[in-house]
C-alpha cells in the first residue's frame, strides 16, 4: 500500500474488486432500468432494477435454483440454464410493467459467446427490450445440443468418464443425451407457469 500525504484510499467495494464506480456512475446518470446479471460458480442471478435516489429498487428477479420448480434437472449455470433463468426473469419483469432495460454486467468483461449473453437472450425472448448486438449466441448451444452430442460421444468412448462427468444429471434422473427435449419441456413449463 502506498504511503504519503497524497495517497487517497479507494472505496472499500473498489478495493475488494466488487464495484466499478465509473460504470456505476454511468448507469446512475442514465437513470434507465437495468437488468443486472451475475454469474457465480454454481448459479445464475438475474434482477431487474429501477433507479431511485434513495437506492435502487429491485422490481423482478430470478435465480437458477428456481428452475427446479419448473422441472429442470440439468446444471444450474450452463448456457441452457442461463437462458431459462433470463427468460423467467424477463416474464416476471413484464408482469411488473418493465418493457425495456439496459444490461448491467458488473465487472464481467464481455466476450463473444459468453454465458451472460444467453441470459440476455432469454430476457429478450421473453419480450423485454435489451440493446444487444451480435454477441455469438448459438441456438444449438442454447438448447443444450452440444452437451447431448458430447454425452453421446463420451458414453461410447469411455463409459466410466461419462458416468463421472454427468453424475449429477444421472442422479437427478436426466439422461444428458435428452437435454434438448428436456429444455423444451421446461421452457413450456415456465411459459405456462408464469403467465
Describe this structure in words.
It is a single chain. By secondary structure, this protein is α+β, with helices and mostly antiparallel strands. It has a single domain, classed as Nucleotidyltransferase, domain 5. Helices cover 45% and strands 12% of the residues. It contains 9 helices and 4 strands. The chain has helices at residues 12-15, 21-30, 79-95, 115-125, 139-143, 145-157, 159-165, 167-171, 179-194, and strands at 34-39, 44-50, 57-63, 102-104. It has a 4-stranded mixed β-sheet with strand order 3-2-1-4, with helices on one face. The longest helix is centred in the middle third of the chain and has 17 residues, at 79-95. The chain is globular, with a radius of gyration of 19 Å. The mean pLDDT is 90.
Keywords:
195 residues, alpha+beta, Nucleotidyltransferase, domain 5, 4-stranded mixed β-sheet, 4 strands, 45% helix, ribonucleoprotein, 5S rRNA binding, rRNA-binding, ribosomal protein, structural constituent of ribosome
Sketch the topology as an H/E string, one letter per element. Answer: HHEEEHEHHHHHH
- Give the integer mean of the pLDDT values: 90
**Overall 3D form:** globular
Helix content: 40-55%
CATH-defined topology: Nucleotidyltransferase, domain 5
Structural class: alpha+beta
Number of domains: 1
Radius of gyration, Cα only, in angstroms? 19 Å
Poorly predicted spans:
none
Strand content: 5-15%
